[in-house]
Amino acid sequence: MGLQLRVLGSGSSGNCSLISHGETHVLIDAGFSYREISERLVQYGLQPEQLTAVLVTHEHGDHVRSAHTISRKMKIPIFTTEGTFATALQEKPLFDWVEVFPGRSFQLGAMVFHPITLPHDAADPVGYRIECGGRVMAHMTDFGYVSSLVRESLRGCDLILLEANHDLDMLRNGPYPWSLKQRIASKLGHLSNEAMLEVLQEIAHDGLEHIVFGHLSETNNNVPLLRAQVRQTLRRMGLHELAFTIARQDQICDLLEV
């Protein structure tokens, strides 16, 4: 049994991924309603009662929305940093909370989770590098620039989920107010296609089996544009056979296993 990733949905209005190995099933974020997440899990043949834990990366609603409900109903713990818990979950009814410390790894089943500090406008946000049986996955969204720590955490992975939030030209010329455009494009905002492609050229290697691009803005990005940009970059790198998936808000992705 390998290390598995099921993206239940990813975008500016909701994010939820399922990381599995054997009988251990861990949600990263719960940015949809409890009902929606349950229905999407069932589509994969997994019942909500089989979940082991919920890892919430930060307190924004598109990541934390139903985490406390899942925790309470399924009697499973929520793993977050203290900052995330204090700003989003402290007053919510839930089963249990386990504090996450960036730089301090923890284990669920056979999977080892390494919390990575991310530069984002949240209390104490993290992404994850996950290791299991010699296989490595990274799950990184919601950060404004690629820090040296993030860059190193993406190296040597077999499978990566990486943010590709916006195209810079679409953001500049789009309908958002200037203050929001500044926030998104800032170092504590979201990663652009251009910045994502730049780091991809640094960390892609022959052993990388699949990349998932997530957290696309419905207003400032689009799938055909991103697909063309990725293909052009991979051809230029001589990695045109590297498989990739563009995650969507409204649908689940195919199961990926490494």
What attributes does this structure have?
9 helices, seven-stranded mixed β-sheet, 28% strand, alpha/beta, 258 residues, globular, single chain
Question: Would you spell out the secondary-structure blueprint of this structure?
Answer:
Layout: E1 4-11, E2 14-21, E3 24-28, H1 34-43, E4 53-55, H2 61-64, H3 67-74, E5 77-80, H4 82-89, E6 96-99, E7 106-108, E8 111-117, E9 126-132, E10 135-140, H5 148-154, E11 159-163, H6 168-173, H7 178-185, H8 193-203, E12 210-214, H9 223-237, E13 243-246, E14 256-257
Parallel strand pairs: 3-4, 4-5, 5-6, 10-11, 11-12, 12-13
Antiparallel strand pairs: 1-2, 1-14, 2-3, 7-8, 8-9, 9-10
Query: What's the Cα radius of gyration?
Result: 17 Å
Strand content: 25-35%
Oligomeric form of this entry? single chain
CATH architecture: 4-Layer Sandwich
Précis, in short:
With 258 residues, the chain is α/β, with parallel strands linked by helices. 30% of the residues lie in helices and 28% in strands. It contains 9 helices and 14 strands.
